[in-house]
Design a protein that fits this description.
41% of the residues lie in helices and 15% in strands.
Length: 317
């Protein structure tokens, strides 16, 4: 597993271990945390180092590869697109070459709802046009296209799991979301609750019911569960392709803040700020394909529960 020291990757490791798998993490720790790797060995190194990747593949002979190692900030991708193309696309191509040279095992890719850009209707299905409006989303589309082409040419099974907004934390409190810098809304809201520092709302004049961006939040442990189901599906001969991981319900920035005030039982001050480049007004997904094909049913879909799990982890740090 690449990027297993990060937020979603570390939670996937925990779920894989609970399912009887041994997750092996390859991470350069540039944005991940060593202390998040708890359920299997950590091999330090970059996905862009073909020799290092080959060493790890030869050492452990994995039954599949899960690829989480990407940079994830939309605003950063707009400001420094070459950084994102280098890490998210170029290094992925190096990783894929090493995997193919070793053995074309099933490949599970951490994709994103950003591939859809500004959808004309929501909830968005996997058949919606791919029209990213920022470099981050374009990175994901490029890798998905690589996987489709390689899968056809080299008989490598693959899937792209298109996350909407990952949220929450391990309900048992062993791991949580800990980015530096933090760009995701819910941890920013919780940090504001802890510190008393006003939270910036990036744009309050979108074409949404309350003027703030609307997103579909998915609990990170539900996302982790989907990775185990996708792994079993591909190992069982399932057909390659993408799956949305979504709850088909959207919540605005102001709604998230209102729920967090209740969960945390603290005031959360806010201040207006300009829109961030590359942010769509609303992004809500349909996960009917994942439900029907993978048997994926989110267990922690309520926003209240997602914020509560994240808050309990934040308080315990």
């Amino acid at each position: 597993m690449t990027g297993g020291a990060g937020f979603i990757g570390s939670h996937a490791c925990k779920r894989l271990a609970a399912g009887g798998y041994r997750p092996v993490v390859l991470d350069d720790l540039s944005r991940g945390r060593r202390d998040a790797v708890k359920w299997g060995p950590l091999e330090t190194g970059s996905t862009g180092d073909r020799n290092r990747v080959t060493e790890v593949l030869d050492k452990y002979k994995p039954v599949a590869v899960m690829h989480f190692a990407s940079y994830t900030s939309i605003s950063e991708s707009v400001a420094d697109p070459l950084l994102y193309y280098t890490n998210n696309v170029d290094r992925t191509s190096v990783l894929l070459r090493a995997v193919l040279d070793h053995k074309p095992v099933p490949f599970i890719f951490s994709s994103s709802a950003s591939v859809y850009g500004l959808p004309k209707k929501v909830p968005v299905s996997e058949d919606s046009p791919l029209a990213p409006i920022n470099p981050y989303g374009a990175n994901k589309v490029a890798v998905e296209r690589m996987l489709a082409d390689i899968g056809a040419a080299k008989a490598m099974p693959w899937t792209a799991l298109r996350y909407f907004n990952a949220a929450g934390a391990d309900p048992e409190g062993e791991i949580g979301e800990n980015h530096a810098p933090e760009t995701h809304l819910i941890p920013q809201v919780l940090r504001a609750a802890l510190s008393g520092t006003p939270l910036s709302i990036f744009g309050d004049n979108y074409d949404t019911p309350d003027g703030t961006c609307v997103r579909d939040y998915v609990h990170v442990m539900d996302i982790a569960e989907a990775h185990v189901l996708a792994l079993k599906f591909l190992l069982g001969g399932g057909r390659s392709g993408p799956f949305n991981l979504a709850n088909a319900r959207g919540h605005s920035v102001k709604e998230v803040i209102a729920v967090a005030r209740l969960v945390c039982d603290r005031p959360i001050a806010v201040k207006p700020a300009p829109r961030r480049a590359g942010d769509p007004a609303a992004l809500v997904g349909s996960a009917e394909r994942a439900r029907a094909v993978l048997g994926w049913t989110p267990a922690r879909s309520d926003l209240d529960q997602q914020i509560r799990d994240a808050w309990n982890w934040f308080k315990s740090r």
